[in-house]
Design goal:
The protein is elongated. By secondary structure, the protein is mainly alpha-helical. It is found in: Cell membrane.
Length: 75
């Protein structure tokens, strides 16, 4: 029984190690760029889309779903 249990642990460890190696190979094959290039591309994207950013230009009150509710008055 002990020999069977230790054999299962070895095969289980082997499977875990094989999965780790497979994942490391996938991660190693990912195309990478320099941080300076990524920062420049991010900056350009932000500048190009600044006119569409509601945090920068605001939202017209007629389209704002979070505008304060209008008060109702009954006569």
């Amino acid at each position: 029984i002990i020999a069977v249990m230790s054999n299962n642990n070895c095969s289980s460890s082997l499977v875990v190690a094989q999965r780790a190696v497979k994942q490391l190979r996938v991660e190693a094959s990912v195309r990478r760029i320099q941080v300076s290039q990524a920062a420049a591309e991010l900056r350009n994207f932000c500048l190009q889309n600044a006119s569409k950013d509601p945090l920068l230009v605001g939202i017209p009150s007629s389209e704002n779903p979070f505008r304060p509710p209008k008060s109702c008055s009954l006569f």
